[in-house]
Amino acid sequence: MLRFIVRRLLQLIPILLGLSVLLFAWLRALPGGPAQAALGERATPEAIARYNELFGLDEPLIVQYLRFLGRAIRLDFGTSARTGRAVTTEFLERMPGTIELTLFAMIFAIGVGIPLGYLAARRHGSWLDSTSVIGSLLGVAIPVFFLAYLLRLGFAVELGWLPGSGRQDVRMDATRITNFYVLDGLLTREWDAAWDAVLHLILPAIALGTIPLAIIVRITRASVLDVVNEDYVRTANAKGLATSTVRRRHIIKNALLPVSTTIGLQTGLLLSGAVLTESVFAFGGVGSALYDALFARDFAILQGFILMLAIVYVLVNLLVDISYGLLDPRVRVR
Amino acid sequence: MGDVKRRRIDELAARAGQVPEGEGGVSLTRSAFRRLRRDPVAIIGAVIVVTFLVVALFAPWLAPRDPLAQTLLSQIRPGLIPGSQEGFPLGVDNLGRDLLSRLIYGSRQSLMIGVVSTVLGVAAGMALGIIAGAFGGWVDTVVMRFVDILLSIPGLLMAISISVLLGQNQYALMIAIAVTQVPIFARLLRGSMLVQRGSDYALAARALGIRKRRIVFGHVLPNSLSPVIVQATLSLATAIIEAAALSFLGLGDPDLARPEWGAMLANAQAFLSVRPELAVYPALCIIVVALGFTLLGESLREALDPKFRR
Asked: Where are the bilayer-spanning segments (chain A) (predicted)?
């Protein structure tokens, strides 16, 4: 098992190097090049020339790349042209919000998706089955930002049941420790602050969780249908095991294997870019920062955030691989 | 990394390639087509897709008005956009343009973005996949490492980066969406070709002394295509939804002379509380078309996948 993990970790190196080359090339290819990217669109030619000299942008590409790599390894992506703050600081401040949102979205998707998929499969052909199949097809077809707008309009603007923007009421004088607002509220025993943060998470989490929900329902259903017809389930039934035992030990345990992979992959996707949902709810996580940077053409933020998010994505996928190796011994051999 | 993601694509590739038992006499294409015709899901999907294609093709004849002409301007005030009335079945948008005509013309642009970006993505992905699958060895390693790097970037982030790089026009939009699809198709086709290369008929062809190029292009490649066709159909849905997302992010086609559902939907968000229909109709179009392609793709998969042939 240890060898398996070490091998996976080693495989990360070429991927990360490749990513850095792509991002370096991307920044070089931008109209105006890195100088303009760092100084903003209205930089004067003199300022650009000075910047180029200062940062050695007149040197050979390979030297420049190595320097870029050196800074990237230290997670130094310069400062935002808009706010003047370090890109990494900005990222670390906002990531907890995105993590919280992802967590809530996945709890929603898993909590609803697995039971629904299981029931749909066990009542194959029933109305519940066909509804969940149609629902899961629709869930993937709806543009996320439109769904987010509908939820916001319905439950926040019209009905006023839930807050429709931000991560916490601005009037809330909450203590910050970790920047995970819910966790902070629990740690400091400011229950109202924690509860307010939870309320702010509900609508964005539902919007963000819809696609994973649709996919989880589909995979669970298909996987349970597959497993139910396996020989070992028939054997277990034939040797007189209680139905609940067969269900728990033989069907669910095996059927959840592909589902767990899906959950992992989806978590990685959500963590790395809830750009659409976050911007509709002005959530203040990494996604809405990317959205703002996109409109302001703040390239330092774009570059740094994209690289760091890609790394997050890669790492989550690595975790999925490793957990898959733990869950399914057959994988480790290869 | 992305091992699970890679394995999943490879699984799709391997499954669709097997020759079904007891059906040796009928060609894969013909038996698949026969199954498709009897599948209600496939028929619903096909009807949806064909309907929208017809609307897109005959838009100038079907649209009741000019999609760009501004009318009813006297009725438009802040907080009021006129709804359905005589001559304007769905009302007008915030600039007084007939909504129904814009939806009809919009189908052209939206479907074209979907089709062109998918064709580009499939072509580039297949080229990489063929190179990797046909040569094997170190070529395969190099190409697939590159593909893995592309796979390690989340799709939307990649599309955003490319759009920012290429600027704001409809071609940039198509290319950005296409690039996100390239690694999937490359990996899929390569996996499928690897399975086919190890099959008995490929061995027989080699034993007969047929040249490698002919084996690859005449036998292995045609037999490896079915998972690609399935994935391409599904990708049409994704491409149209992704185009809407990029429009929403301000990276869409800035040319106002070309109505497009994604841009219409993104624009309408500002008037959602005044007239939600402005957003609802383009969204419905996107959802229904995406659903059509998805239904068609899923039933194609079932028709082509021997695992489902019972």
From this structure: 101-121, 133-151, 197-217, 255-281, 301-327
Which residue is associated with the tokens 């040249």? B211
Q: How far apart are CA A210 and CA A139, in angstroms?
A: 6
**Number of Cβ pairs closer than 8 Å across A and B?**
131
Tell whether B5 lies on the interface with A, counting CB pairs under 8 A: yes
Question: How far lies A326's CA from each of A167, A267, A314, B237, in Å?
Answer: 36, 18, 18, 35
CA B149 to chain centre: 22
Interchain CB distance below 8 Å, A18 and B146: yes
pLDDT at B33: 77
Q: What's the CA gap between B264 and A175, in Å, rounded? A: 42
Question: Long-range contacts made by residues A328-331, C-beta under 8 angstroms, separation at least 24?
Answer: A328/A257
Q: Which residues of B touch A137 (CB under 8 A)?
A: 291, 294-295
Put simply, the answer to whether B273 touches A302 (Cβ < 8 Å) is no
- Block mean pLDDT (10 aa), chain B, length 310: 66 61 57 78 88 87 76 66 69 75 87 92 91 82 85 84 83 90 88 82 86 83 84 90 86 78 83 80 91 88 63
Contacts 24+ apart (CB under 8 A), A60-66: A61/A28, A64/A24, A65/A21, A65/A24
| pTM of the entire predicted model | 0.83
CATH number of the CATH domain containing A153: 1.10.3720.10
User: What is the rounded average pLDDT for all residues in chain A?
Assistant: 82
Interface check B182 vs A, CB under 8 A:
no
Looking at the partner chain, which of B154, B250, B276 has a beta carbon nearest the beta carbon of A294? B250
**A100 domain-assigned:** yes
Classify B65 as helix, strand or coil. Answer: coil
For residues A184-194, average pLDDT: 79
Residue from A6, A129, A146 whose CB has the most chain B CBs within 10 Å, to mutate: A146
Rama region for A85: left / alpha / beta (φ>0; ψ in -120 to 50; rest): beta
The span from the CA of B151 to the CA of B138, in Å, is 20
Output the DSSP codes for A288-311: HHHHHHHHHT-HHHHHHHHHHHHH
Instruction: Kindly state whether residue A232 falls inside one of the protein's structural domains.
Output: yes
Q: Report yes or no on A138 lying in a domain.
A: yes
pLDDT of residue B17: 53
User: Does the residue A284 lie in any domain?
Assistant: yes
Residues 6+ away with beta carbon under 8 Å from B152: A15, A19, A310, A313, A314, A317, B1, B2
Yes or no, beta carbons of B146 and A321 under 8 Å apart: no
At residue A210, the pLDDT reads 92
> What count of Cα atoms within 13 Å lies in the side-chain half-sphere of residue A63?
6
Residue A222 phi, psi dihedral angles, 5° rounding: -60, -40
CATH level 2 (architecture), domain B30-57+98-308:
Orthogonal Bundle (1.10)
Say if the Cβ atoms of A294 and B251 lie within 8 Å. yes
**ipTM over cut 0.85:** no
Q: Are B41 and B303 in contact (CB under 8 A)?
A: no
Q: Which domain holds residue A241?
A: 95-169+201-293+326-331
- How many structural domains is chain A composed of? 1
